[in-house]
Amino acid sequence: MVGVANIERWNKPPFLPWMPEEFYPQSIYPEAKSVIVIGLPIPLPVLETSPSIYYRELYNTVNSLLDQYTYRLANFLTDRGHPSIFVPRDGYGNIQVLLENPIAFFSHRHAALLTGLGTFGVNNMILTPEYGPRVRFGSILSTAELSSDPMLETELCTRCMRCVNMCPSNALNEKDYPSGLTDKKVCSSYSAELNKRFISPCGICIKVCPIGNDRVLYDRDKDALYIDKDLFPHHKAWKHVRSYGGKNP
Ligand code: B12
Ligand code: SF4
Ligand code: SF4
Known about the structure:
- The protein is an alpha+beta fold.
- 33% of the residues lie in helices and 12% in strands.
- The protein has a four-stranded antiparallel sheet with strand order 1-2-6-3, sandwiched between helices.
- The model has no long low-confidence stretch (mean pLDDT 97).
């Protein structure tokens, strides 16, 4: 997925509270005129094994591709006379740092919203029509004056509350973003525990979300899929994958 937004969009917050100005692209790179966001999908059948080494490996693969694509696209634009820089897909040292200060210097979710790729869900993630929240983002800050993509006009979240009910650490609440923010300390602590066992991140709140054409594509649109162990052979497959490659609690 690719979306483009003029930096002026950061000056006109679509909701409040918005982020402080020092997080705006033009604050981080004063010459920036446009932001390009790319999104790469998280294939659902792999995410469904989470927490597992399988999802962890996928997460690392997608992260490294995001950084490579945004780095290369930024240099491509720079070589053609439009200086541009990539922003790493995450931007923090390790999970211990996030436990103390769970914020990065630039928000890809807000950038994805402003470039028209999706809208915020109750799970605090950006939901997209194509992959629901199962997409990871990377951004490029560019001096090129590019035309903006339209923002999505309808909210994609149906407020079904599956994410809230299935979060293993009760880190989510029923309120919409940004009035109902994730309990970042609780989610980060859970992630830190999984990390010790080499099976972080968690990602249940993006796995269970019903939004996204990928669910139909993978034939994963039955409501009982994650609950009924007898009806779906998938549970046996997930148990098998989870039994290898990570440490037991
Ligand atoms: C820190 C972080 C975490 C932390 C905190 C999560 C959170 N909800 O903020 C932890 C470790 C818990 C986490 C977990 C997860 N994460 Co994470 N995470 C990030 C990271 C690195 C930075 C987020 C950030 O700081 N945003 C900036 C601020 C502005 O956003 P905010 O906190 O929501 O700000 C609001 C309020 O705080 C308010 N506000 C009021 N006063 C103030 C004052 C200040 C100083 C600030 C900053 C804000 C503020 O302003 C904002 C309101 O609009 C981003 C990557 C990135 N660099 O963007 C990935 C990212 C958000 N994570 C992602 C994902 C997928 C996950 C997980 C599903 C794990 C996984 N990979 O399987 C879980 C989901 C947790 C959840 N449901 O919220 C994806 C989201 C993709 C998507 N489709 O939206 C991202 C974008 C990574 C990526 N490159 O794709 N994550
Ligand atoms: S699981 Fe339901 S409530 Fe949560 S983000 Fe998706 S659609 Fe919204
Ligand atoms: S990543 Fe896991 S612990 Fe964190 S909010 Fe999502 S479901 Fe809850």
